[in-house]
Amino acid sequence: MFAFTYHRPSSVRKAAALAASVADGKLLAGGHTLIPTLKQRLAAPGDVIDLGGIPDLAGIELRGRTLSIGAMTRHAEVAASPVVKEAVPALAYLAGLIGDPAVRNRGTIGGSIANNDPSADYPAACLGLGATIITSQRRIEADDFFTGLFETALEPGEIITRIAFPAVKKAAYVKFANPASRYAMVGVFAAKRTADIRVAVTGASQSGVFRWTEAEEALKKRFAGRSLDGLSLPADDMISDLHGSGEYRAHLVGVIAQRAVEAAAG
Q1: Domain of 37: which CATH number?
Q2: Mean pLDDT across 132-142
Q3: pTM across the whole model
Q4: Of the candidates 127, 150, 166, which is a domain's last residue?
Q5: How far is 220 from 224, CA to CA, in rounded Å?
Q6: CB 3.0-4.6 Å disulfide test: which of 20, 69, 151, 172 passes with 263?
């Protein structure tokens, strides 16, 4: 890898100041994307700012009807947390499906959301639950946060500090995983909270995570899997690779969405 200067700030304020003062710095959370990229010499930042030394960025708590999770909280912690299992069981289940034990004990929720990989699981949970991403500068609704493939609304130097999820019981996540990487070839997060029905899809679209609004409208009449009978998505925007064609993924979205709704309704 190329040489860089390593920083390990002790507070969000210091990390934000460092990020603002360097021209081409990179923030390091779990490191599952950045470190391989550095090793392959595909990136050459002059500075790497490690967020692992900031205790305020980790932790899980329930504040009223809002589940608050620190950005540096590990996937394994989310999966095992009694607080998460009580407030949003589907989110704990989702975290337990990510990668393998080594990945879950290193990767962070904030890093996954900031990276916005088109096949990552957490972006679907954020959109499906109507989460709020809290940063060092502002609060961003999930609907406004994910802007495209590996793209978010984060400004240079802006740091995710926490993610706030509404407590929801009627929600489920189902994914069809690549057997090798365990990334979602298609993952669907379905949730119903009073009149707010959301169906978020990851792993399928070339544009990244998205809400399937046609499915949401159909589910307003009846929140049941069969309400999605006959609905389909165009294959043109679907990812097509050696693991599956766009047509295959478009078909999978319908199948997995029905299973997610059935699991949430049940």
Answers
A1: 3.30.43.10
A2: 97
A3: 0.94
A4: 166
A5: 9
A6: 172
pLDDT of residue 184: 92
In the chain, the number of structural domains is 3
Give dist(CA 157, CA 164) in Å, integer. 21
Whether 213 and 235 share a structural domain: yes
Q: Are residues 86 and 125 in the same domain?
A: yes
The pLDDT value given to residue 84:
98
- Rounded CA Rg of the chain: 18
Q: Enter the tokens of residue 123.
A: 């972006």
- Per-residue pLDDT of 109-127, as tens digits, reads 999 999 999 999 999 999 9
User: Taking 90 as the threshold, does the pLDDT of residue 23 lie above it?
Assistant: no
Q: Which residues of 142-173 are buried (b: 16+ CB within 10 A; e: fewer)?
A: beebbeeeeebebeebbbbbbbbbbbbebbbb
